[in-house]
Structures are given as C-alpha cells and as structure tokens.
Amino acid sequence: RCVLKELESLGKALYGAKLIAQRFQVRNCSHHKDPVSGSACLLSMIEEGNPHHFFIATQDQDLANKVKKKAGVPLLFIIQNTMVLDKPSPKSLAFVQKLQTDQLVPEHQKQSIVQLKEKEGLAKQEGEKRRKRKRAGGPNPLSCLKKKKKKTQEGQEPSAEKKKRRKRKQNRVKAETVQLVQKNEEE
C-alpha cells in the first residue's frame, strides 16, 4: 500500500508503473494511517528474518545494498528487459552455513566437545601456528639432459657419404625412367 501511495504522489510520470503495481496482490503493512516511502516499507516487511519469504525486486541501488545486508532475502533486478536473480549475499551464505553446522552437531554437544578437549589438553592455542615444511625437491630436469656429441672429422665423413648416396639414388631414378621410356618407344 505504501508503494502505491508513493506512485500516486509522484504523478503522471509513473502512471504506467502504478497500473502494473496495482495488478499484483497488495500485501498489508503496518503503515495504514501514515504511509512511508516505498523502500522503508519494503525494508520493514523483511525485518526479523523475512518470515513470509519475500523477494525484493528493485532498481534502486540504495535499497539493494540495504537488502544485501539482511540474510535470506533474494534480490531481483532488471537488465535490458530481462529479470535477473542476484547471487546470494555474503550474509545469506554465512547464515546458511551456520544453519547447516547447527543441524549436524547440536549446541550442547559442541560445548561438551570443547570441555573434553580442554580436559585432555587438546584445545588449540591461539599463539600456536603450524608452518608447512619446505621439502627438498629433485634435481632440475634441465640439468639432467643428455649432452650433445661434438662434431669431429669422423662425424663429417658419414654425412658426405649420405650425400653421395642421395645423388646415386637420383641418378638411378633417372636411369630407370629413361629405360622405361625407351621400352615404350620400342613397343
């Protein structure tokens, strides 16, 4: 109701937004006689842990920042004609994690565990921090490479022979083609 009153007071500029807001179900708030601003009304409705599981849809950054500070309130906004559900705030994530850990181990059991640890001397001391030891690694893999052989006069001779062989192969191929051509001419 407070949002509708605010839209009426803003005049013709937001008449379309007022028509759209009137189509939705109007939730009763505690400000019947003296309406407050729309953002203040929305914030008052989600207090005390959002018992009615409301979603807040707004383009107002101030309101969005205030909503993010409360746990368990989903936030919707519009980007280029698309409705976007904002990621959970850090407050909401911390609240959910706390709920999960409380469900795993009840509070009285946590207290008894702490007492038993203190009794046995297993409680963590704040000044005590463990550091990871640096372990010796293996040798540098680049230093383990095989050494290259140096070129000598003996090493150069086989390469000369290979060149000769290549020439011979090329000559043979040419000789074979000449012979085939001669046979074809005779036939």
UniProtKB/TrEMBL annotation:
Residue span(s) of domain UTP23 sensor motif region: 130-149
Chain intervals with Basic and acidic residues compositional bias: 116-129
Transmembrane parts of this sequence: none
Location(s), subcellular: Nucleus, Nucleolus
One annotated GO biological process: rRNA processing
Region ranges (Disordered): 116-187
Amino acid composition bias (Basic residues), ranges on this chain: 162-172
Keywords, sorted A to Z: Nucleus, Ribosome biogenesis, rRNA processing
Keyword field contains Nucleotide-binding: no
Keyword Nucleus applies: yes
Superkingdom classification of source: Eukaryota
A Pfam family the protein falls into: UTP23_sensor
GO cellular component terms given for this protein: small-subunit processome
PANTHER family named in the record: RRNA-PROCESSING PROTEIN UTP23 HOMOLOG
Family statement drawn from the similarity comment of this UniProt entry: Belongs to the UTP23/FCF1 family. UTP23 subfamily.
Function: Involved in rRNA-processing and ribosome biogenesis.
Identification of the protein by name: UTP23 protein
Organism of derivation: Fregata magnificens
Source species taxonomy: Eukaryota, Metazoa, Chordata, Craniata, Vertebrata
